């Protein structure tokens, strides 16, 4: 079910249709109630600038607007990171992200606790990752997405590989895919036309 021709083939995935979307992707995205993203390498380009006690990260503004559009449409958003960061917490607060988990333990148990608390199942999750720490959630999620700069092992397990790189609009691409699959995109556009 992959569209990026640079990605390795996977036996459980189907080839892309001519329209550029994997077969069945829109159908799978219709059931998404929660978008979960890794942070470094997905919401950022993976760079971390450290000077003294200051840590800086660069977040793409269009990703932020896409996440806000999801939330406005009733789809919850969460960020899952193994690396605690004040910069991540600040950006999550600015965007009013529903769930931020920055814990130095496996992502699967962190997400399972979140899902149990929210009474959601893995099949309702779209997970976006880029590195091997994301393999567990990517494999379990209803829709697993790798960003264009993901490592080959992550691309091999993804249902879709974004055209954009992490930190360069990849999350916005995913947000639009979800909104369009759920027939919510036109409503978002209309809200900005008035």
Give a brief outline of the structure.
The chain contains 8 helices and 8 strands; from the N terminus they run αβββαβαβαβαβαβαα. By secondary structure, the protein is an alpha/beta fold. The protein has a 6-stranded parallel sheet with strand order 5-4-1-6-7-8, with helices on both faces.
Give an account of the 3D structure.
The chain is globular and about 45 Å long. The chain has helices at 25-29, 61-72, 86-95, 107-118, 135-140, 152-156, 170-181, 185-193; strands at 34-37, 49-51, 54-56, 76-81, 99-102, 125-129, 143-146, 160-161. It has a single domain (34-193), classed as HAD superfamily/HAD-like (Rossmann fold, 3-Layer(aba) Sandwich). With 194 residues, it is an alpha/beta fold.
Task: Reconstruct the topology from this structure.
Blueprint: H1 25-29, E1 34-37, E2 49-51, E3 54-56, H2 61-72, E4 76-81, H3 86-95, E5 99-102, H4 107-118, E6 125-129, H5 135-140, E7 143-146, H6 152-156, E8 160-161, H7 170-181, H8 185-193
Parallel strand pairs: 1-4, 1-6, 4-5, 6-7, 7-8
Antiparallel strand pairs: 2-3
Helix pairs in contact: 2-7
């Amino acid at each position: 079910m992959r569209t990026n021709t640079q990605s390795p083939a996977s036996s459980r995935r189907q080839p892309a249709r001519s329209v550029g979307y994997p077969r069945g992707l829109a159908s799978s995205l219709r059931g998404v109630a929660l978008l979960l993203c890794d942070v470094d390498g997905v919401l950022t380009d993976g760079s971390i600038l450290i000077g003294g006690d200051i840590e800086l990260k660069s977040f793409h503004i269009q990703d932020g607007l896409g996440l806000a559009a999801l939330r406005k449409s009733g789809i919850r958003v969460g960020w899952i990171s193994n690396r605690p960061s004040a910069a991540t917490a600040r950006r999550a607060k600015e965007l009013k992200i529903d769930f931020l988990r920055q814990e130095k333990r496996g992502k699967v148990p962190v997400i399972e606790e979140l899902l149990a608390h929210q009474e959601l199942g893995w099949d309702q999750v779209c997970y976006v990752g880029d590195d091997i720490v994301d393999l567990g959630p990517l494999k379990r999620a209803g829709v697993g997405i790798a960003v264009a700069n993901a490592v080959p092992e992550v691309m091999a397990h993804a249902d879709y590989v974004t055209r954009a790189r992490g930190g360069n609009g990849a999350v916005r691409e995913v947000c639009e895919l979800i909104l369009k699959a759920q027939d919510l995109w036109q409503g978002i556009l209309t809200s900005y036309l008035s």
